[in-house]
Design goal:
about 525 residues; mainly beta; OB fold (Dihydrolipoamide Acetyltransferase, E2P); 4 domains; 8-stranded mixed sheet; 5-stranded mixed barrel
């Protein structure tokens, strides 16, 4: 599992699912003190057992092990007969022991205690039941044999999604809670978006998630996702262990655990003349009904209403902004709210691995650019024109006292055609661009700064540059991962040298810092004219 640091992406707060356990001492020896009498996992999952109770398990089966990515070592165990309440997450077991195990191994666990884990910022009242080392001791995990995985339960995601969940503690939460820690297979699964990164920097390809039927998330904690998952994808099934971290999570063990190409999904839209957006039913089981469901507002099959004019308030009707000024109009109208919008004839100005940027025209202008928090359309290139771009436009973050910037989420792009050469804004000074207020119109736009002298290399592939008035701008790599895939741990530029930089402007919302993001290594070129320090 991963870090519990809160990482925010998009209009919804997305969180890393689990906690890293690769910082323990990796020893197998334990005191065994407080191990308690052997109980079943059903006993551990029962509310009759309080947190802090010493626990020993006998003859349980390993169902999943986290050996993927940089944070590894967690595992899940289950009673051999399977069923509800039969599984549990094991946190901070000795790494050397966990590394020697495989799914299907039979183990005894001693020196553990029950824990109910949740961050203080999780106000739902829900927790994750797990086993961790007994206070002051070290957990021991002993392999006693090899057997078969418990029966994989078939669970209807749509049925769970259509249950009531008042204040996050209703029937739906109870249904997921019964499968917490258990290896299950979901049927009737729709994807409500392409996989998105968990974290504001989007720099960990092993840490992605997408929403599914049942008001749950599928997360790539244990294995990579298959390709081809997009908004409104119908999945054949999803197999994985159930976990919890602010949302109920399904963690596939292998890429093959997510089967694409399903054909039995129901979506909340009325594009084909149906009544799904007016029937009072949560047709796709995501916890939202009719007008409250984005499926009635965005996506390739969204209900467009009768006219869809810019002032049309019909349920599910996207605001329709005219070509040539779609983005600038949306930036102005949606600055304090979020609405479904239709943009027309927009140009791609930059491409990231999981996001991209668009503009009203090939020539960049203030207020004419926008950040798109969705995976770029397949095959699209910088400079191409997208005939349409539909999604939810609004400020991120949507609340708080700091600066925000406009984003487009859950985006569906129309056909791409030839465009031309994208040219940056050249007249804006560094002082203007970096100001939280003065830089707001340039967020999402392509700009050029220089001459600027490189001052220092910072963390996370950032670097700082100073212009001749001593204003400092931070260069980041949000528009392309690891500086074009060069593999270098730091920007391949020289401290003290003079450069010209072209890049899209972005806002690091956590740090409240505006950054310039080159699209390729070629966007940073040497120049002359740097003075001062």
């Amino acid at each position: 599992m991963r870090t519990t640091t809160i990482l925010v992406c998009g209009t919804l707060a997305l969180f890393a699912a689990c906690r890293g356990s690769d910082d323990n001492n990796g020893t197998d020896a334990g005191s065994g003190s407080g191990s308690g009498s052997a109980v079943t996992i059903q006993d551990v999952q029962s509310t009759n057992m309080p947190a802090g109770t010493p626990v020993s398990l006998k003859g349980v089966v390993v169902t999943a092990i986290d050996a993927y990515g940089t944070k590894t070592g967690d595992m899940w165990v289950e009673e051999p007969e399977g069923g509800q309440y039969s599984g549990v997450h094991v946190y901070n077991a000795p790494l050397t022991t966990v590394a020697s195990l495989a799914p299907g191994d039979i183990v005894d666990i001693a020196g553990a205690e029950k824990s109910e884990f949740a961050l203080s910022t999780d106000t739902t009242g829900r927790t994750l039941t797990e086993l961790e080392p007994v206070s002051g001791g070290v957990m021991t995990v002993t392999k006693t044999g090899t057997g078969s995985l418990p029966p994989i339960a078939q669970v209807d995601a749509l049925m769970i999604g259509q249950l009531s969940d008042v204040n996050n503690n209703g029937q739906r939460s109870a249904a997921w809670g019964a499968w917490e820690g258990v290896l299950i297979q979901l049927t009737n699964v729709s994807a409500f978006g392409a996989p998105k990164c968990v974290g504001s920097a989007c720099s960990d390809a092993t840490d992605q998630q997408f929403s599914i039927t049942g008001d749950a998330e599928v997360e790539s904690e244990l294995a990579a996702f298959p390709t081809g998952i997009t908004l409104d994808s119908c999945l054949g099934n999803v197999t994985g262990v159930v976990d919890y971290f602010f949302d109920y999570l399904i963690l596939p063990r292998t890429t093959a655990d997510v089967a694409t190409g399903g054909n039995g999904c129901t979506f909340e839209n009325a594009a084909a003349g149906g009544t799904e957006c007016t029937d009072g039913i949560d047709n796709d089981g995501n916890g939202f009904i009719d007008c409250a469901d984005l499926g009635c507002e965005v996506g390739s099959a969204a209900w467009l209403g009768a006219s869809c004019g810019s002032g049309d308030a019909t349920c599910g009707c996207s605001k329709n902004y005219a070509a040539g000024s779609s983005i600038s109009a949306a930036n102005a109208a949606e600055a304090t709210t979020s609405s479904a919008v239709y943009l027309h004839d927009v140009y791609v100005t930059a491409l990231g691995t999981s996001t991209y940027w668009v503009a009203d025209n090939l020539g960049a202008a203030a207020s004419g650019g926008m950040y798109v928090f969705s995976k770029p359309p397949t095959g699209v290139t910088v400079g191409q024109k997208l005939a349409t771009l539909q999604g939810v436009a609004g400020p991120f973050p949507s609340s708080g006292s700091g600066a925000a910037q406009m984003e487009l989420e859950d985006a569906t792009a129309g056909s791409a055609s030839a465009g031309g050469t994208v040219t940056p804004i050249t007249a804006a000074t560094v002082t203007t661009l970096i100001g939280l207020t003065t830089g707001a119109p340039y967020a999402g736009s392509l700009v050029q700064v220089g001459p600027v002298k490189m001052k220092a290399v910072g963390a996370h592939n950032q670097a700082t540059f100073e212009d001749n008035s001593n204003a400092i701008i931070t260069m980041d790599d949000d528009a392309f991962f690891d500086y074009g895939g060069s593999g270098s741990a730091a920007p391949p530029y020289t401290v003290g040298s003079c450069y010209q930089i072209v890049g899209v402007m972005d806002l690091q919302t956590t740090d409240q810092v505006r950054t310039i993001n080159p699209r390729t290594l070629a966007d940073v070129t040497t120049t002359t004219g740097c003075t001062g320090n």
